[in-house]
Amino acid sequence: MIDSHCHLNYKGLAEQQDAVLGRARAAGVAGFLNISTRQSEWQDVVATAERESDVWATVGIHPHEADQHADLGREVLLEATRHPRVIGIGESGLDYYYDKSDRAVQQALFRMHIGVARETGLPLVIHTRDADDDTAAILAEEMGQGAFPALIHCFTASPEFGRKVLDLGLTISISGIVTFKNATDLQEFVKEIPADRLLVETDSPFLAPVPHRGKPCEPGFVRDTAQFVADLRGEDLAGLSASTSANFFRLFAKAAP
Questions:
Q1: Closest among 160, 148, 152 to 192, alpha carbons compared
Q2: C-alpha–C-alpha distance, residues 209 and 152, integer Å
Q3: Considering 76, 94, 180, 192, which has the largest number of Cβ atoms within 10 A of its Cβ?
């Protein structure tokens, strides 16, 4: 299986990166997408992907960091995508829950990331929280100007939003949040996601799934999330792992064997 979203260079994982990756591989995880959230991380995130053959990288700006990157030039992001180990753009998007950056700046950077995804053909990894309406509106408007590959990572939004992005052709990635006892709406929606549009992730070192709640999350815990999702959907773990891995390589074609 593939952990389609992790932060291997964040505190809690970076200090024991080799051991973390070893434990995940022993649990059956065969690939890792190492996500960046600010420009200062790009070099380290890419360096991990250069060192580890089963790790790939993204480059992008998280909406929390938008104010600090308001003047990031499109060409800077475009140039960073040319590295052979960079297979995606992001994470980028909108976060109105914390509002750590001005919403207009978040939206402008989100649209810039979309433009680079459209130009390069690399998938855009989207973060959205408490911003369903604006995220859906921007995605629909931008898709109307030209299609681009994208996924909603760590999906926790409403089923209505989920159906909208599926109609736009996006993929949805499910994190350990689905295992939480209060995530009943998400658990029901997971059953609706088409088999060819589903990914699983950890978002480690955050959001450890049951039975690891209270611990720093590790990429190896994606197995627990995958098992929970498989049970919800009435599938076996091997089948879900195979289909989500195939979906990953189809979406992130630059990483395909």
A1: 160
A2: 19
A3: 94
Q: What is this structure's pTM?
A: 0.97
| 5 annotated ligand binder | yes
Is 153 annotated to bind ligand? yes
Evaluate the CA torsion angle 17, 242, 185, 165 in order and state its sign. positive
Position 58: which residue type? Answer: T
DSSP code, position 51: H
Q: What does 136-180 look like in DSSP terms, one character per residue?
A: HHHHHHHHHT----EEESS--S-HHHHHHHHHTT-EEEE-GGGGS
How confident is the model at residue 180, as a pLDDT? Answer: 98
The CATH T-level fold of domain 2-255 is: TIM Barrel (3.20.20)
Average pLDDT over residues 143-160: 98
Tell me if 7 is assigned to a ligand binding site: yes
Strand order in the sheet with 171-174: 2-6, 31-34, 55-59, 86-95, 124-129, 150-152, 171-174, 198-200
Q: Which pLDDT belongs to residue 257?
A: 80
Is 91 annotated in a binding site? The answer is: yes
Domain parsing of the chain, residue ranges: 2-255
d(CA 49, CA 232): 33
Residue 129: is its pLDDT beyond 90?
yes
By CB atoms closer than 10 A (0-12, 13-18, 19+), residue 129 is middle
Cα 116 from Cα 77, distance rounded (Å): 8
Look at residues 132, 133, 140 and name the one whose alpha carbon lies nearest to residue 114.
140
Half-sphere exposure of 100 (CA within 13 A, CB side): 13
Tracing tokens 């709640």 back to the chain, one arrives at: 213
